[in-house]
# Entry
Amino acid sequence: MKYFFHIGYHGNRYRGWQRQPGVANVQEVIEDALFNILKTPVSIIGCGRTDAQVHAIQFFFHAEIDQAWDYDLVFRLNKRLPIDIAVFEIIPVQDDQHARYDATQRTYDYFIHTYKDPFLSEVSSLYLEPHLDLEKMKDASKLFTRYDDFMALCKAPARYKHTRCHVTEATLFTDATGDKLRFRISANRFLGRMVRMIMGTLLEVGRKQMSVDALENYLITRQTPENLKPAYPQGLFLSKVTYPYLDIPPRTERLGRLQYLTEDWVPV
# Structure
């Protein structure tokens, strides 16, 4: 029988979701925990990949498990897993449903704080730049819903059959003081490091080192800006994954020290 596992994880200790030899990754940790409990190898398929040190407020993977269990598997997994990975629920699904290919929308949130705060350093990116031009950044954000080819903001476009993504939301928020920023973007798919590259361009615009017109030209010509660096990974969260048959709100009530992520944010 096939199951979707609804989970969340703090990515700071991991080199991303995907299993890879010699480095810590979320997939391997979960597969090992399932093996220890079920006493049989279980292969899992995630809803996507996340970069090293990137977090997931909401993430799904599927697994085919033939044997039945008469105990609370969610409880046992959470006892076995490290403190930075949590299982919220296990959902029986149809045999033809797929955690990665069936997802119709993914939403990412990127958080920035512009002052030094040791309590935010692992869940928000520090940029000591309190004078960013937020209006220009807002204007630049609007471009991402107008264009559907993101080759200019993809580190390795040759890996993909095409670089088209349908972005449905790209919104910049600030907190009441203006000291923290949040950028939210939703699309049907994302390319490798695409969100961090987008955030890198927004910071360039905010510093007035790139104009909004120049960014639009890059999107039109599909040329990558020279010397553009992706934004730091620790401020990035995969925050929502939606399926035609499954639309579950993120478990934000269990964010613990991340409660600041759900504070009142005002669109710029």
In short: The chain is about 20% helix and 25% strand. Strands lie at 2-9, 44-46, 55-64, 85-93, 105-113, 125-126, 167-174, 180-187, 236-242, 266-267. The radius of gyration is 19 Å. The domain at 2-102 is CATH 3.30.70.580 (Alpha-Beta Plaits).
